[in-house]
Design brief:
By secondary structure, the protein is an all-alpha fold. About 40% of the residues are buried. The C terminus is likely disordered.
């Protein structure tokens, strides 16, 4: 074990690979000028905790489990989340940012992944790279780096969506996208951490011991080049603009920010603590907005885009199933007294794709049920003092009759899903109609 930094030294080695100190017992160090700073670097990596790396890992897995639950918790759901699920949990979609002003979609995508392999690759990368950045710069700066570079990656993806008729060459397709499809993943933030370590190694190349020189600075170049090459091969489905946006943002942050040396001024530390709280608050508020809009019906333009981006009846069935589930959720809210979403749900049902005569009839029946629920429980309903027809007992009887009609409709819809509906997408596990006790599909 090295006497200077405490690192484990292999048998037969005469110098510590981390701090460069001699292990032969000689009192004269081999690098007298750099040893003191080298030991500081080594102790920063060996001694400091990396708790927020673990917290981010847990948060990403938690969001993934919620998405899997919304997809029916089937084995097929692990390998591909459909676009409505990605959108519901906060994936970036330019159309919703531009038309609905859903700004939080610049933040939430860094915690959303499209499938299990995507999650595992990104979380393994975070486990490898994250502790180095957090130990060198401290937890406060690490959190700020993660959020800022993650947002920068989403901004890069947002800015590189061009019109569908744009002519792009091979290099253009590497960076630009002609389809506005959901974009998600922690890759932008991960490239940001790589950018931090790359610039960090170059800034302190004269002070770093050999072990750090091999890991940071130019040692990061093979990782950067290999990942960009993979992105070039996978252009069209890999969001390279997000990767480059995060990489550039991470490099810029490392140029402007010093690593946290021992004895750093208290004022600087407090500033970064405040910035960390601000970054975490931004993430929390963004996911609160996701929760508030989780059941919002997809705008017709987005539904049409999903069908165009996907293949055939499967994509149309996903849109149909989500619209029907959202409408049922709205029905229960209307029965409970909140009819604010009925009109939007009816409009969505009017434009939803149909597959056969029965699916069209089921949609029309659900529209009628929603309209009757609004008339019965909405603000326009007369009070008992205005009309004898509004007798509380009669209103209760009407409500019971409406619920019975809905129950009959629900049985017919479930039967259609389990029989004819299977032929249009095989997604009956995510399209079962909600119930009052379990309204979530």
């Amino acid at each position: 074990m090295c006497r200077g930094c405490g690192a484990i030294v292999g048998a037969g080695q005469t110098n510590c690979a981390v701090c460069g100190a001699s292990t032969t017992g000689s009192s004269a160090p081999s690098r007298p000028v750099a040893d003191r700073e080298a030991i500081r670097f080594a102790r920063a990596v060996l001694d400091r905790p990396y708790k927020f790396t673990i917290i981010l890992l847990v948060a990403n897995f938690f969001v993934f489990l919620l998405m899997w639950q919304s997809s029916g918790m089937t084995s097929a759901g692990l390998w591909e989340f459909h676009e409505p699920v990605l959108i519901a949990y906060g994936a970036k979609l330019n159309r919703l940012i531009n038309e609905q002003h859903q700004w939080w979609r610049f933040v939430t995508p860094m915690f959303v992944h499209v499938n299990l392999p995507h999650l595992l690759v990104n979380m393994y990368s975070l486990w490898v790279v994250g502790p180095y950045v957090e130990k060198l710069y401290g937890s406060a700066k690490f959190v700020v780096f993660w959020v800022v570079t993650g947002v920068a990656g989403v901004v890069g993806s947002y800015l590189t969506v061009v019109g569908p008729g744009t002519q792009l060459g091979s290099l253009g397709r590497f960076l630009f996208k002609t389809n506005d499809v959901p974009s998600a993943g922690a890759s932008g933030a991960l490239f940001g951490l790589v950018g931090v370590l790359f610039v960090f190694g170059i800034k302190f190349r004269h002070e770093l011991p050999e072990g750090f020189k091999r890991a940071f600075g130019t040692g990061m170049l093979p990782i950067i080049v290999i990942n960009l090459f993979i992105g070039y091969l996978g252009r069209g489905f890999i969001d390279n603009a997000a990767h480059l946006g995060g990489l550039v943002a991470g490099a810029a942050l490392a140029l402007a920010v010093e690593y946290r040396r021992p004895g750093e001024r208290t004022g600087v530390a407090i500033t970064w603590q405040i910035l960390r709280v601000g970054a975490l608050t931004l993430v929390a508020v963004s996911f609160l907005k996701v929760a508030q809009h989780f059941r919002d019906p997809l705008p017709p333009s987005v539904r049409d885009q999903i069908i165009r981006n996907s293949s055939g009846a499967d994509a149309a069935f996903v849109v149909f199933a989500k619209t029907m589930n959202d409408a049922q959720e709205t029905f229960y809210k209307a029965i409970g007294g909140d009819s604010s979403g009925v009109d939007d749900a009816i409009k969505s049902l009017e434009s939803v794709p149909h597959f056969d005569q029965e699916s069209a009839q089921l949609t029309e029946r659900l529209r009628a049920l929603l309209s009757n629920a609004k008339k019965l429980k909405g603000p326009a309903a007369p009070s008992p003092s205005q009309s004898p027809a509004a007798d509380p007992r009669k209103l209760q009887q009407q409500e019971q009759a409406l619920l019975q009609d809905f129950g009959s409709w629900s049985k017919d819809y479930s039967r259609w899903l389990k029989t004819t509906g299977k032929t249009y997408g095989g997604l009956t596990d995510v399209t079962q109609p909600p119930t009052p006790n379990n309204p979530t599909p």
